[in-house]
Specification:
The chain has seven helices and no strands. It has 261 residues and is mainly alpha-helical.
Length: 261
Amino acid sequence: MILRFLFSFVVARLSSQLREAFDALLSDDDPDKLLLCLEVSNFFNFVESLIDKLLEKKIPFRHFWTVLERKIALIKDIVSLNIAKALTDDMNQLERKFVKLQELQFVGVSDYVAARMEVHLQTWRESRASVGLRIQAQRKHVDQAEEVLSERLAHLCEIDSSLASVDVEIAELEQKLAEAKQRRTILEVTKAGEEHSKTVMSSKVALSRERLAKMEEEAAQLLSAYEDSFKIELQRELERTYAKEFAKLEQQIISQKFNVK
């Protein structure tokens, strides 16, 4: 219970790999593990101060690897290979975050925006150039669907006409009633199939019309915009993206601190 109390305030902030190693370490109250716990606690304190210095002084993380490796080696020597490996993995991950943060600081918002501006502008230009072709293709699809629907409607009219003729024939030719009813059954089954086809095609036509209307609306908005105004808005958006990415990465690094008091 003593060992678990010593580290209960930091375990929640550890990586899953390091947390599993600590769970094994804290599984009993072996007094021989007290020295290891103290060394790990000292390591946390050192990393805590190291993160503050790196954020404040902008010093490369690699300059501190010798010290970190020496401290981790000491923990490994006290017979805790799993914790030593987990600590090394955590420090490697922390170094990658610092490297990325320093890269963003070196690039700066202007170069960050400039590097991405042309790609977004090219995508916008290509979309603008192809909008007419896409609308033309969609309109052709709508025309074809409407043509198929017209054929189905004409076929339905023919079936309805045949049904009317059969009804007259039944009234006039009772002696052929059985044969006429059989023909009627066949025609009704055919009509049911065509009704289903009509329903399916009606849904497709409605969907195609809806897509066409949406594409025409988007095309109108796209064609009415000017590149300069789009570029200004795009720059603002990229600047916001840069700020969010910078802040997120910095927060991730700060959250790596163990708050050991």
